[in-house]
Specification:
The complex is a heterodimer of chains A (294) and B (280).
Chain A: E1 2-7, H1 15-25, E2 29-33, H2 42-45, E3 48-63, H3 73-77, E4 83-85, E5 91-93, H4 103-107, E6 113-128, E7 131-138, H5 145-162, E8 167-171, H6 178-184, E9 189-194, H7 198-213, E10 218-223, H8 229-241, E11 246-250, H9 254-262, H10 266-269, H11 273-291
Chain B: E1 2-6, H1 14-25, E2 31-35, H2 43-47, E3 50-64, H3 74-78, E4 84-86, E5 91-93, H4 103-107, E6 113-128, E7 131-138, H5 146-154, E8 161-165, H6 172-178, E9 183-188, H7 192-208, E10 212-219, H8 225-232, E11 237-242, H9 245-252, H10 257-260, H11 264-278
Parallel strand pairs in B: 1-8, 1-9, 2-7, 2-8, 9-10, 10-11
Antiparallel strand pairs in B: 3-6, 4-5, 6-7
Helix pairs in contact in B: 1-11, 5-6
Classes of the chains: A alpha/beta (294), B alpha/beta (280).
Amino acid sequence: MKQLVVISGKGGTGKTIISASFAALAQNKVIVDCDVDAADLYLLLHPEIQESHQFIGGKKAKLDLEKCTRCGECTKVCRFSAIEENPIGEFIIDPISCEGCGICSYICPVEAIAMEENISGEWFVSQTKYGPFVHARLAIAEENSGKLVTEVREKAKEIAEKNRLDFVIIDGPPGIGCPVIASLSGTDLALVVTEPTLSGIHDMERAIQMAHHFKTKTACCINKFDINLKNSEQIENWCNKNSIPLVGKVPFEDNVTKSMVQGIPLTEFSNNSAAKEIKKIWQKLIKLLATEDH
Amino acid sequence: MIISVASGKGGTGKTTIAVNLALSLEYTHFIQFLDCDVEEPNAHFFLKPRIIESHPVNLPIPEILESKCTYCGKCAEVCAYNAIAVLKNTVLVFPELCHGCGGCSLLCPEMAIKEKGQRIGIMEFGAVNNIQFIQGKLDIGQALSLPLIREIKKHKNLTRIVIIDVPPGTSCPVIEAVKGSNFSLLVTEPTPFGLNDLKLAVETLRKLKIPFGVVINRAGVGDSMVDDYCQKENIPILMTIPMDKNIAVAYSEGKSIIQTQPSYRKKFLELFEKVKELKK
């Protein structure tokens, strides 16, 4: 079983469009949406939810105003500025700022603060016409998306092992921080989708460096490569210099947005050059995944 | 006044809107631009500030004073993030899990834990014309962007118009970046993905009680669902930028819209007037 994650650094470069096409192209796979903050892959895969689970992200402090003597000790120790005194002298905990460290509840002399489990999302196991799909929804304004990503990936891996599947295909989040690291750790290959813009190049370099920091191999593809040929050439040179396989260059095409509006993976929607290029990329990735030894 | 520019979905044009708003206003106002997208800060490509000063940002993580430690295990017990493990005669600290809450050092009965700063990124200060510029940049391999965003926001200067470039998404880094804004601009594109993520961003701002309006970028590419949604939810659409290959090409070269199409400056000034009316 091989795990492939699609990341980008910069948002909006085309991760989900490409992941959805892989979902349609690959045989024997489970599909995972790890962009739990802004999950879009379901819009192309139309899952039928079979299981749903609550996600407990952590705890939040809850203050009992009846017990509180308004001594203010808690505000002194809270480093997240989550406890404030309101105009009538009551102490109020802002659940959005609270990071659940629990120190206030330890030091409160009258035990007026309790730490309560916080349901901060849901995750699902679904069936799609392309195979099993594990996805999630982080509740609004919640934290710990890295932990949710880890739970979703564990489930996907379990499904893959149980059914002896060949691939776990992971649509990753943008950025290089906690949820991206959780999406990437332990995968066999990270495909970095970039675009030929200064921001796209800068963010791709950071994403690749991050992947290498965690000892994950990378391959790169350029989306909308014909928007700026000079920049695309620069990406190609950078990849060559750093021995990163450049597995494809997808042209800018109206079909891409059209397929999204129709809710169909691009390779199922059209057979024009963009779709053809993504098919070639998938073939190259199969080879890379087969030859990678970890 | 603080105006934050957010989106939910990545790549819809947050940085473009934030940068062009700053460049349009700087003739008549003093601006402070805070790039809080610390995982992938890009505004500098377009503003081209001269960086005057930079310094590292540290997170306080525990350091165990072995000579005083009795391996009682209290620190591991109180740590909500599993960042400390106490074995028979050694204490393991996992800095990548630490949130810097300070609980372990505060509650250690032997006072055997002191805190030391661990670098998580840098903050850079710069300027260009009437724009004061601050950006954070998370170090490669670091997981926590929140403390860095918090640090940038400590430097907000309310004598200026503060424009914040927010990271994508709807979770903690976004909250930290938009918190305290007088108004948020939500940038979206008229596609199913754009709409889906716009809805999440709207819920987030409603929860935070920050007034907001929508900017539709690349108008004409997808469908009319975003317009329909905004109308139904009574959300003002404050600006529409049509899909324009020239803008996309200029963006790819690090050029702002108003640099290549100066007539847009007027539109951004109109946007600002609307923001002033709607802000809290």
